[in-house]
Write a structure and sequence with these properties.
The chain is built from 7 helices and no strands. The protein has helices at about 1-20, 30-45, 50-55, 60-80, 85-90, 95-110, 115-125.
Amino acid sequence: MKRWLRWGILSALVALLVATPTSQAQTPPTAVSVYSIWVRLSLRGYSQEEIESLLRNMDAKTIDDVKVRLRKSVLANLRLKRIRERFQASRDKGDLQDVLSSIETEIRFAGLENDDELKFQIRERLGIPLDRL
Protein backbone atom coordinates (compact mmCIF):
# COMPACT_ATOMS: atom_id res chain seq x y z
CA MET A 1 0.00 0.00 0.00
CA LYS A 2 2.83 2.38 0.85
CA ARG A 3 4.36 1.64 -2.53
CA TRP A 4 1.19 2.79 -4.34
CA LEU A 5 1.07 5.93 -2.22
CA ARG A 6 4.68 6.79 -3.02
CA TRP A 7 4.08 6.08 -6.69
CA GLY A 8 0.99 8.31 -6.68
CA ILE A 9 2.81 11.19 -4.99
CA LEU A 10 5.81 10.82 -7.29
CA SER A 11 3.68 10.77 -10.44
CA ALA A 12 1.71 13.80 -9.19
CA LEU A 13 4.97 15.75 -8.68
CA VAL A 14 6.25 14.76 -12.11
CA ALA A 15 2.96 15.80 -13.70
CA LEU A 16 3.10 19.11 -11.83
CA LEU A 17 6.67 19.79 -12.94
CA VAL A 18 5.94 18.90 -16.55
CA ALA A 19 2.74 20.96 -16.65
CA THR A 20 4.30 24.09 -15.12
CA PRO A 21 6.40 26.18 -17.51
CA THR A 22 9.89 26.91 -16.24
CA SER A 23 9.66 30.60 -17.03
CA GLN A 24 6.67 32.80 -17.43
CA ALA A 25 6.44 34.88 -20.57
CA GLN A 26 6.91 38.48 -19.65
CA THR A 27 5.81 41.51 -21.52
CA PRO A 28 8.62 43.98 -21.98
CA PRO A 29 8.39 47.12 -19.89
CA THR A 30 6.99 50.19 -21.60
CA ALA A 31 10.31 52.02 -21.25
CA VAL A 32 12.01 49.47 -23.51
CA SER A 33 9.62 50.03 -26.39
CA VAL A 34 9.66 53.80 -25.91
CA TYR A 35 13.47 53.63 -25.81
CA SER A 36 13.46 51.76 -29.13
CA ILE A 37 11.08 54.27 -30.65
CA TRP A 38 13.23 57.16 -29.42
CA VAL A 39 16.43 55.65 -30.84
CA ARG A 40 14.81 54.87 -34.20
CA LEU A 41 13.48 58.40 -34.50
CA SER A 42 16.82 59.95 -33.55
CA LEU A 43 18.65 57.78 -36.08
CA ARG A 44 16.18 58.93 -38.72
CA GLY A 45 17.23 62.51 -38.03
CA TYR A 46 14.49 63.73 -35.71
CA SER A 47 15.57 66.32 -33.15
CA GLN A 48 14.91 66.02 -29.43
CA GLU A 49 12.00 68.47 -29.66
CA GLU A 50 10.41 66.51 -32.51
CA ILE A 51 10.78 63.20 -30.67
CA GLU A 52 9.35 64.63 -27.45
CA SER A 53 6.49 66.12 -29.46
CA LEU A 54 5.71 62.76 -31.05
CA LEU A 55 5.83 61.05 -27.64
CA ARG A 56 3.90 63.75 -25.79
CA ASN A 57 1.09 61.33 -24.90
CA MET A 58 3.47 59.04 -23.01
CA ASP A 59 3.78 59.09 -19.25
CA ALA A 60 6.37 61.64 -18.06
CA LYS A 61 8.04 59.02 -15.83
CA THR A 62 8.50 56.72 -18.82
CA ILE A 63 10.09 59.51 -20.87
CA ASP A 64 12.39 60.36 -17.95
CA ASP A 65 13.41 56.69 -17.65
CA VAL A 66 14.20 56.61 -21.36
CA LYS A 67 16.31 59.76 -21.06
CA VAL A 68 18.24 58.30 -18.12
CA ARG A 69 18.96 55.16 -20.16
CA LEU A 70 20.02 57.24 -23.17
CA ARG A 71 22.36 59.35 -21.02
CA LYS A 72 23.98 56.20 -19.65
CA SER A 73 24.43 54.89 -23.20
CA VAL A 74 26.04 58.11 -24.37
CA LEU A 75 28.44 58.17 -21.41
CA ALA A 76 29.34 54.51 -21.94
CA ASN A 77 30.01 55.11 -25.63
CA LEU A 78 32.19 58.12 -24.84
CA ARG A 79 34.19 56.05 -22.35
CA LEU A 80 34.66 53.35 -24.99
CA LYS A 81 35.96 56.00 -27.37
CA ARG A 82 38.36 57.14 -24.63
CA ILE A 83 37.14 60.70 -24.98
CA ARG A 84 38.65 61.86 -21.68
CA GLU A 85 42.11 60.67 -22.70
CA ARG A 86 41.75 62.19 -26.16
CA PHE A 87 40.64 65.49 -24.62
CA GLN A 88 43.57 65.56 -22.18
CA ALA A 89 46.01 64.64 -24.95
CA SER A 90 44.71 67.23 -27.41
CA ARG A 91 47.50 69.59 -28.34
CA ASP A 92 45.91 71.89 -30.84
CA LYS A 93 42.58 73.24 -31.96
CA GLY A 94 42.11 70.44 -34.50
CA ASP A 95 42.46 67.72 -31.85
CA LEU A 96 40.03 69.52 -29.58
CA GLN A 97 37.57 69.94 -32.43
CA ASP A 98 37.73 66.18 -33.17
CA VAL A 99 36.92 65.39 -29.53
CA LEU A 100 34.01 67.83 -29.46
CA SER A 101 32.76 66.48 -32.79
CA SER A 102 32.76 62.93 -31.41
CA ILE A 103 30.81 64.06 -28.35
CA GLU A 104 28.37 66.02 -30.48
CA THR A 105 27.81 62.98 -32.73
CA GLU A 106 27.05 60.70 -29.77
CA ILE A 107 24.64 63.24 -28.33
CA ARG A 108 22.94 63.66 -31.71
CA PHE A 109 22.59 59.91 -32.28
CA ALA A 110 20.87 59.65 -28.89
CA GLY A 111 18.53 62.49 -29.77
CA LEU A 112 19.50 64.52 -26.70
CA GLU A 113 20.81 67.71 -28.28
CA ASN A 114 19.14 69.99 -25.74
CA ASP A 115 19.59 67.84 -22.65
CA ASP A 116 21.39 69.97 -20.07
CA GLU A 117 21.62 67.04 -17.64
CA LEU A 118 23.66 65.03 -20.15
CA LYS A 119 26.02 67.93 -20.78
CA PHE A 120 26.44 68.37 -17.02
CA GLN A 121 27.23 64.65 -16.63
CA ILE A 122 29.81 64.80 -19.42
CA ARG A 123 31.46 67.78 -17.74
CA GLU A 124 31.42 66.17 -14.29
CA ARG A 125 32.30 62.57 -15.16
CA LEU A 126 34.64 63.09 -18.10
CA GLY A 127 36.02 66.52 -17.26
CA ILE A 128 35.09 68.05 -20.59
CA PRO A 129 33.33 71.42 -20.60
CA LEU A 130 30.72 71.62 -23.33
CA ASP A 131 30.22 75.36 -23.43
CA ARG A 132 30.68 75.34 -27.20
CA LEU A 133 27.88 72.87 -27.95
